[in-house]
């Protein structure tokens, strides 16, 4: 299956993508991983992206598209893939459509993970991370530490990342609504969008997604 996963920040796209890709035996292709891999491997696109980022500028769509298409052309994606974070806007979506058409392929589904805006803010703004190990993550409401501000695992100080503040989260949501949300209408016109509630336990959301994909297969 060839799937695009879309949803606002805090919808749990990365978590769901990992589970769904494993269940479907297809690679999980995320924009963040693409950038890190290309930069660390010193590819032509990676060098171009790094120079742009080091200058404090946004990476152009063409570079992101190039990285995504290169990754999708690898052998493990021959029978499908799950895209997470790409396409991020309508221009990228149109480029993906054209590339797939050239290969005689098409998307099977676009999973739209829906979460109420205030829940997104609550999820992200409540996150607290250990300064000693960023893998130790807590939440002020959903999974608080035994002692406020102290990591249960190693005793390190818990802190809130600057991009997790409520003000920053709302700005990220504005960007999502302006730039990314329009791709949902783009794909609705193709009859590809499956809208799912991303509220509840992780396993419940995964089950909803798998049920929906099985119905589209």
UniProtKB/TrEMBL annotation:
Family to which this protein belongs: Belongs to the adenylate kinase family.
UniProt catalytic activity: AMP + ATP = 2 ADP
UniProt note: domains: Consists of three domains, a large central CORE domain and two small peripheral domains, NMPbind and LID, which undergo movements during catalysis. The LID domain closes over the site of phosphoryl transfer upon ATP binding. Assembling and dissambling the active center during each catalytic cycle provides an effective means to prevent ATP hydrolysis.
The EC number(s) this enzyme carries: 2.7.4.3
Enzyme class: transferase
Database matches in PROSITE patterns: ADENYLATE_KINASE (PS00113)
Residues bound to ATP: 10-15, 127, 137-138, 200
Binding sites annotated in the UniProt record for AMP: 31, 36, 57-59, 85-88, 92, 161, 172
Record keywords, A-Z: ATP-binding, Cytoplasm, Kinase, Nucleotide biosynthesis, Nucleotide-binding, Transferase
Protein name, as recorded: Adenylate kinase
Coiled-coil intervals: none
Domain Adenylate kinase active site lid residue range list: 127-163
Positions of region (NMP): 30-59
Record's keyword annotation contains Ligase: no
SUPFAM superfamilies: P-loop containing nucleoside triphosphate hydrolases
Metabolic or biological pathway, per its Swiss-Prot or TrEMBL entry: Purine metabolism; AMP biosynthesis via salvage pathway; AMP from ADP: step 1/1
CDD domains tied to this protein: ADK
GO cellular component: cytoplasm
Chain's gene name: adk
GO molecular function: AMP kinase activity; ATP binding
Subunit structure: Monomer.
Function field: Catalyzes the reversible transfer of the terminal phosphate group between ATP and AMP. Plays an important role in cellular energy homeostasis and in adenine nucleotide metabolism.
């Amino acid at each position: 299956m060839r799937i695009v996963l879309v949803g606002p920040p805090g919808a749990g796209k990365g978590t769901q993508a990992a589970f769904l890709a494993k269940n479907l035996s297809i690679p999980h292709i995320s924009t963040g991983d693409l950038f890190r891999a290309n930069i660390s491997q010193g590819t032509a696109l990676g060098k171009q992206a790094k120079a742009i980022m080091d200058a404090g500028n946004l990476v152009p769509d063409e570079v992101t598209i190039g990285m995504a298409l290169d990754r999708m052309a690898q052998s493990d994606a021959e029978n499908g893939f799950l895209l997470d974070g790409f396409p991020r806007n309508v221009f990228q979506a149109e480029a993906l459509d054209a590339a797939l058409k050239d290969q005689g392929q098409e998307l099977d589904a676009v999973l739209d993970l829906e979460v109420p805006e205030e829940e997104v803010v609550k999820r992200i703004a409540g996150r607290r991370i250990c300064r000693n190990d960023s893998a130790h993550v807590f939440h002020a409401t959903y999974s608080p530490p035994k002692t406020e501000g102290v990591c249960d695992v190693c005793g390190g100080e818990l802190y809130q990342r600057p991009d997790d503040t409520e003000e920053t989260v709302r700005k990220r949501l504005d960007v999502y609504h302006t730039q990314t949300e329009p791709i949902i209408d783009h794909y609705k016109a193709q009859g590809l969008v499956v809208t799912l509630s991303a509220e509840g336990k992780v396993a419940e959301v995964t089950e909803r997604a798998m049920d929906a994909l099985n119905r589209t297969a």
